[in-house]
Specification:
The complex is a heterodimer of chains A (628) and B (115). In chain A, 28% of the residues lie in helices and 25% in strands. With 628 residues, chain A is α/β, with parallel strands linked by helices. Chain A has a 5-stranded parallel sheet. The two termini of chain A are 25 Å apart. Chain B has one domain. Helix content of chain B is 48%, strand content 9%. Chain B has a two-stranded parallel ribbon with strand order 1-2. The radius of gyration of chain B is 14 Å and the shape is globular. Classes of the chains: A alpha/beta (628), B mainly alpha (115).
Chain lengths: 628, 115
């Protein structure tokens, strides 16, 4: 292709940040006479209006066909310079922004000469790249005001409500028979004191009253496909097997009793059951437990119903599950009175008057922290558990009084304002013991008491034995897995949670265009954080859905059909399923392409390039920088 | 990701060898192995492929496997051209993994000075 030969090169001083170490004049001198360069200048602040005008004027007056700006990191100002070029009538993707501040002046301030040489190499590489740059157009996709939210917990409902209020049609899909998720199981929550059930009630009320929100409960996702602007999800809605209105009286006549999962088996429920605090009001029959006695006037002929819903955006709010300790881990499943924090939370909520478990009154409780966290299996800290544990202990003390509480912790992370809870625990006379992960506490039984043995770092390693009636294991969060992740090919982080594109710059988007994350499917969060992330995801979805279209960066694969021999290597390599072979040639579905470029790397004929990073551009860049 | 680690190194004013040129690509999985050979043939003494590792925003964990395949192919090419394989280094570099950048470059420098 014809090389661009009217390139403008702009070297920024950054007010001394660059020019104190990089000799910017020397950089300009080194490149101004290169064959592809029309003009090279240095300026004190390229990002300033005066700096941008310099570029705009040169584009207009000299007819530049490419621009190189050497200044700070492109993550800061690439968009600034692209917009400036666009305003002056130049295709914004003919601008190459390279970094000589973070990548040169700041790291080689000890050697200005070398810093200058490095800046020259970087600028030469950029000029070479621009000389072969193609005109690119951002991709415009039409958006219908319709979204799919997977998961009907606090985060999913928050998303649905926010979107519904913005006039977006929302399909809210919940796999269990009722909305609410795990937050409903939490007792009094920090920091507001509202209970999980009350919170869920409020959200459910809004969901019910918003005609834009369509709720699907008892619903399994059978398939999910598509891309930004055109997702299709098939949902199998399992029958509830009930007819008409079922009174509480009728429910109570059910002869079957099974452990109620909502209370982790602390209470029983009937085979036909409902949850008063949530939606729908219709009960459901648990067919694994039902004996088909017929007393509740059921309809066993109901069949699952499959519906297809569409949406321009998918928000995943699939949540977490609490870590289940291994048998024998701090006496779990070996001694009766060793339970996990979520179970303890339910126990507080359902107990009245006194705290009892397994028929035994509980007077002394030890909490062991970081169970299953920050170890080889789960390297991460779930973070919410410290505050949640202290909060639960405070609740128990408030409700039942006269408890002796011992916290056996590794580190306490009651960040932010939650430090107040930690202080309160101390004021309430709770005792804290710090253990070393190399030497964790041991739980044993002695008579009718459990003994927690801990080598306490706060007293310089003193061996302490704490006799208690109950041990509560403070467990962290694990991701709740869903088939929809693989159906949509959403990438996971090392911790097994869903991965955002960037924690700060694109915190609720995944690498799959149009698939957003909300709540704990992305990583451990407390209810406050999960709700905030849900509102953030809804707001992000609005930026596409309310506007009616999306503009995407053009950096996706480009297949040259003349070079393609239809071998299909790229089809295998593509992580997004964006390439197929049609009539012996590879064909790209642009809306699916993530822009990784993996397909190009395996193409035997180099028929595939990544736009903006064409291989001929990279080769020429390498040559230019390696030259001298 | 790795590019951001280089930005981070700058913000922290960490020093590393200035005999380096940074070529930005979105994902290491796009590297054609012949590009690596091309760098050696264009006058570079060593190539440092700073991939995002398992934090890759495009491929997640999968990036590690895909990129490793490119590097294996590149090793074969280097072998064919009699270039010391130790001059090519692949490292997973997260967006704040400044030590991975500095350490990787030190290793390459040691390799070069030892030859």
């Amino acid at each position: 292709m014809k090389e661009r030969n009217k390139i403008g090169v702009y070297v920024c001083h950054c007010g001394g940040n660059i020019s104190d170490y990089v000799d910017v004049k020397k950089v300009v001198e080194a490149v101004k006479d290169l064959p592809n360069v029309a003009v090279a200048r240095d300026f004190v602040f390229m990002c300033s209006e005066a700096g941008q005008n310099l570029i705009k004027e040169d584009i207009k007056n000299l007819g530049l066909d490419g621009v190189v700006v050497a200044s700070c990191s492109p993550h800061l100002h690439e968009k600034t310079f692209r917009n400036a070029a666009k305003e002056a009538g130049l295709n914004p993707y003919l601008v190459e922004h390279v970094c000589i501040r973070e990548h040169s002046s700041w790291v080689h301030s000890d050697n200005p000469e070398a810093a200058t040489q490095k800046a020259i190499w970087i600028v030469k590489a950029a000029i070479a790249k621009v000389s072969l740059a193609r005109d690119l157009e951002s991709i415009r996709l039409d958006m219908k005001p319709e979204a799919i939210v997977v998961g009907g917990g606090v985060a999913g409902m928050r998303c649905a409500i926010d979107l519904g209020r913005a006039g977006i049609t929302v399909h809210l899909i919940e796999k269990s028979p009722f909305l609410g998720g795990r937050a409903a199981q939490i007792g009094k929550m920090y920091p507001s004191g509202i209970s999980g059930i009350e919170l869920v009630k409020k959200l459910v009320e809004e969901v019910k009253n918003n005609p834009n929100i369509k709720v699907y409960t008892n619903a399994e996702i059978v398939s999910a496909e598509g891309a930004l602007g055109e997702f299709k999800v098939k949902v199998k809605i399992n029958p509830r097997y009930v007819k008409g209105n079922v009174s509480d009286d009728t429910i109570s006549q059910c002869p079957v009793e099974v452990p109620d999962e909502f209370n982790y088996g602390l209470t029983k429920r009937k085979a036909i059951y409902k949850r008063d605090f949530t939606y729908p009001d219709t009960p459901v029959i648990d067919m694994n437990a039902c004996t088909k006695c017929g007393k509740c006037n059921p309809d066993f002929n109901q069949k699952p119903k499959t519906v297809e819903v569409t949406g321009s955006i998918v928000i995943l709010a699939t949540g977490f599950k609490p870590y289940e300790p291994k048998e024998g881990e701090f006496g779990y499943k070996v001694y009766d009175n060793v339970i996990t924090l979520p179970v303890f939370d339910r126990l507080i909520s359902i107990s009245n008057g006194k705290l009892e478990y397994n028929g035994k009154e509980i007077r002394d409780i030890a909490f062991i922290y970081c169970v299953g966290s920050r170890n080889e299996e789960h390297e991460y800290c779930s973070r919410y558990c410290c505050v949640a544990t202290i909060n639960a202990a405070l609740q128990a003390l408030e409700k039942f009084g006269d408890l002796r509480v011992y916290h056996v912790y590794r580190d306490i992370r009651t960040y932010g304002k939650y430090e107040l809870y930690y202080e309160q625990a101390g004021r309430d006379g709770m005792l804290f013991f710090k253990y070393d992960p190399e030497n964790p506490p041991v739980v044993e039984r002695s008579g009718n008491k459990l003994i927690v043995k801990v080598k306490d770092l706060l007293t310089y390693g003193e061996e302490i034995e704490i006799p208690v009636d109950m041990v509560v294991l403070s467990v962290g969060m694990e991701p709740e897995m869903s088939d929809v992740f693989t159906m949509l090919r959403v990438p996971f982080s090392r911790d097994g949670f869903l991965q955002e594109v960037h924690p700060k710059l694109r915190p609720v988007e995944t690498a799959i265009g149009g698939v957003l994350v909300a709540g704990t499917c992305q990583g451990p969060k407390d209810t406050v954080e999960a709700t905030a992330s849900a509102s953030a995801a809804a707001a992000k979805a609005d930026t596409y859905l309310v506007k009616g279209y999306a503009e995407l960066e053009p950096f996706i694969a480009e297949i040259n059909p003349e070079k393609c021999d239809g071998c299909g290597e790229c089809v295998e390599e593509c992580p997004a399923g964006a390439i197929s072979i049609e009539n012996g040639k590879a064909v790209l579905k642009e809306a699916l392409c993530k822009g990784c470029g993996a397909c190009g790397a395996v193409c035997p004929t180099e028929a595939i390039n990544l736009r903006g990073y064409y291989y001929d551009q990279l080769r020429k860049s390498i040559e230019a920088a390696g030259g001298d | 990701m790795a590019y951001r680690a280089l930005d981070q190194a700058g913000l922290l004013h960490v020093h590393y060898t200035p005999n380096t040129v940074i070529i930005r690509i979105p994902c290491a999985s796009m590297l054609r192995p012949d590009l690596i050979l091309h760098a050696f043939q264009s006058g570079f003494d060593a190539v440092f492929v700073a991939s995002s590792g398992p934090d890759c925003p495009f491929l997640g964990e999968e990036c590690v496997r895909k990129t490793a395949k490119r590097i294996e192919k590149a090793y074969e090419l280097l072998d064919e051209h009699g270039i010391d394989k130790n001059r090519l280094l692949l490292t997973g570099v997260c967006s704040t993994c400044v030590e991975a950048i500095v350490g990787g470059l030190e290793r390459l420098e040691e390799t070069l000075s030892g030859e």
